[in-house]
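Subject: DUF3459 domain-containing protein structure
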Amino acid sequence: MNIQFETSPEQLPQRCAQGIRFRYQGAPGLRSVALAGTFNCWAGDVCRFEQVAPGRWECLLPIAAGRHLYKFVVDDRHWIPDPANPWISEDGQNNSCLTVDEHGEVLMRQRGLDAGAAGPLYRRHQALASPAWLREAVIYQLSVPAFGGDFDGVRARLDYLEQLGVSVIWMMPIHPIGHQGRRGTLGDPYAVADFDAIDPALGDATALQALVDAIHARGMRVVFDWTLNRSSADHPWTAAHPDWYTRDADGQVYYAVPQREYFAGFDFSKRALRTELLAAMRRWVGRYGFDGLRLDDSDITPTDFLVEIRSALAALRPDIALISQSYDEFHHLHSCDLTYEGGTREMLRRVACGQADASAFAQYWKESTYSFPRGALRMRWLEDKEQPRASKVLGTGTHRAAAALLLTMDGVPHILMGQEFDEPSWRDWTVLFNRYRLDWSAFNPGMHSHYRALLALRRAHPALRQDATAFIEELPPGVIGMRRGSGAGAIAVLANLSERPVTLAAAIGPVLYADGWDQAHGKLAAHGCVIRAC
């Protein structure tokens, strides 16, 4: 995410002839240090450090180009971020980050990036051109059984989604779920037991086609969630093609990520595996007309396979969109249209708590924007399936103010099912391991109307979907201000994340939407927002 502290460059990961060298300075008495990250599927017992001096450990590892997240595993049980690396991930899981460029050089995010002092990837590379429908999208992620029970139940709620103002429906996996190692009564929906089949509890092919057709009839798009780098542990391929899978030290098929014994990890060095997966993806897109795929755990999948996926699917649909579950700058060059951006929520939380100010938020935005290739499209979220509800993290009031900013920022906003009405029962995706439905009885009409109004505003004003972002300075503490666009269509957004009402300087231009705004006295309530034409 943002840079947490200053550090000594010699302690950071560095390029050498054989790869990237990592260093760890530990207390006397350590038995072992290992390196786990996206480059080795988070295996915590494979890449061992060597003790080169008392308390000093080193590890050398070849690493491909791209963004990589990692932790040190100390004494086989303590998973910690690199104490010397100030760059922490945007995923909310406290991982250390580094990026390796196409020349093998280590790029660490630097403080102070902006339009006049952009990072090397921004200067050197233009991002892949994404389809226009995705650039203007608002994405709504849902689980079919949790949201509507089955395909017909989701279809019955499409009027609700259309009226809310979302434009893309992202359906979480709908394949049959494996039984081996199953957790809960249903198991993890990402433990796919058959990549060509539909979970019969959700409906059949006719019902799925009717749902996709109904989504398209409303002018909306639908994205299919694809479990990319693994299958269930009892997928038929594990017996028919065991060579397609990764193996543990005993030669058994396994998945390297800890505590995921119900998965079996793919070995992408096998050409036949890639061919079969590509054919399966083409069958789904070709038959049902999906507009895109969301690629689960693409940060631990070889980038060259992502390029193959794009080529295969673009031949069927030139305007296909690929959403990468990663924070990888290099996914924007040849394969994916959209990567995750989760630092916005954390920075908003810090501003609300007084741990950061509006200038720190603006600086984070600049550093995350100008370290990526030019034009890179980011998916901004307040809620992600692996995280708790926004109101749990931020508080309900701050959630309202944060939503006003997220839904008027650049990039593509993402909404997790129920977020828009402050649904309370969701914890993370593990609730789906058992029979689970959103608690519609806890519907918060005030939060829902807030989201609906903000989405209507985004839809009505091109500046909120297309134009540049500039931050407004010299505002009261806890207030973040943005200006979107320029000229006659420009819009100003002001949101108060603090617990106190504030007085704002007089502004010219009609109010387009307000929440807690006293026009006569220029006062903005705690957690209020005002959006106006400039």
